[in-house]
Amino acid sequence: MNNADNFLIKDENVYSGALSCRGCGWTLLVRHLSSILGEDTVYVVPASCFSIIAGPYPMNSVKGTIVHTVFAAASATATGVRASLDRQGKQASKVVVLAGDGGTFDIGLQSLSGAASRGEDIIYICNNNGAYMNTGVQTSTATPYGAITTTNPAGKKTWPKNLVELVAAHNVPYLATASLAFLDDFRAKIKRMRDASGFRFLMLDSPCPPGHKYAPELSIDISRLVVESKLFPLMEIENGEYKITYFPAHEVPVRDVMKLQGRFSQNGLNEELNDIQKWVNKEWKKILNKSEMPVEK
User: Fold this and answer.
1) Is pTM, for the whole model, over 0.90?
2) Please, which pLDDT band fits residue 3 given cuts at 50, 70 and 90?
3) What share of residues in the chain are helix, strand, coil (percent, to 5)?
């Protein structure tokens, strides 16, 4: 499925060691991202797990520039950084927002919408682990149906926000989803964003052992099952054209993914699994109908 040789990072742009939890998706995301974008990159980081992982000033885990900003203002801050670089004639420098789902789906949504509407020349990456993990695993609008959080101890009873469609409604030139279990696909999309211009958006399904409640060594295995079950389709939308970039090789029911995560182990979930499976199937068919590929029979 993937060529292991392609995973070798020739241009390492992160320093050794990490402040992340074991099995965290953030560190792997930034390691591969920075190896493609290079040192001439400014990373704008709102309140999130990565604001801790990157380290407080003057420390920095990435060979590049880190700008820490408040929860709601990542896109606005990135807009200002982009304008400053352009004024200095540094159009080749990349500006990248690294935000979690709380700072993207919820608190930072207004400034994201503004930057997308204006077509700001920035790359926005949402590391979606489905809750406010850095502050104690509270529910966000990205939290899956049925997941236990500290603010929904009986399990969330609403469906997650479809942020991909919301961003697509801004008519941005390129947006995509990616998974750390499919590195060829992930790295190819980063390169596409690097070489494009305008507002680009990437949603990453990110593993979080303490928040999702599983053993750290299972991060990539679970991430792969999430894609194979169609809970998180891999796709891209370029100038309004939908394309699925990976068709699951096996029919994996959502039950097989959820039973591996303690956040789904509450009483009563079994009664709701049929509804969750129907929702997943319906959302997959919506993407198929919009994509350039024929609808499955």
Assistant:
1) yes
2) very low
3) 40, 15, 45
